Amino acid sequence: MTEPPPLLQDVEREKLVQDHIGYVRALAIKVQREFSAPGLDMDEMVAYGSKGLVEASQRFDPQRGVAFTTFAHYRIRGAILDGLRELGWMGRSQHARFVAGTNEYLENQLHRDSSPGGLKDTVNEIYNTMTDVAAIFVTAMGPADRDTADTATPDGATLLETREACDAVRSAVAQLPDKERRMVEMFYFEGRSLQDAGRSLGLSKSWSSRIHARAIQLLSRRLKARGVTAA
Length: 231
Hints:
mainly alpha; Rna Polymerase Sigma Factor, Chain: A
């Protein structure tokens, strides 16, 4: 399938990229802290994030009234995480769970009914969405052992923090209502698709998406209360 042409002129896209390289570095630093791994090469992480930045500049439509940093955030972060997987810091299964869970959650948020609000409401909604995606990241990474076939051996401090995050995730999941708990367990821990997990719970596809979104929102609040976050 042919890629649609860029919505902005070359000079406009180049300016967006130049103006937001610092934002890419800031996100790379956050990801580095999430992994508690100062040994990660910052230049490589910025290079991966820059690919996401360029992609965002090509797809950005200023007519939609959304700030470029908001539009580009997930693309830049996703490109950095893709890079980490290639570098061996993120296993294939963790990456797949994170991408699938994020896509399901964001699609549900996109189609939900919402009333227009002011700038404060918009900022709060963006912040909450970022926090919830961070919870998906922690859930996808924490509960399972890291893939040994494509992952570098972490140091002792990283192993300890991984175990602590794993314990916090499992404890928070155990406190969810039954349907939400089982949805998280099947989707993230057992590797089942959202539709398959929903069928096991007697849910339609649309209700499966709603239960998943509700589970992530509840889990996000519980993890934040425990001081576990990737935001």
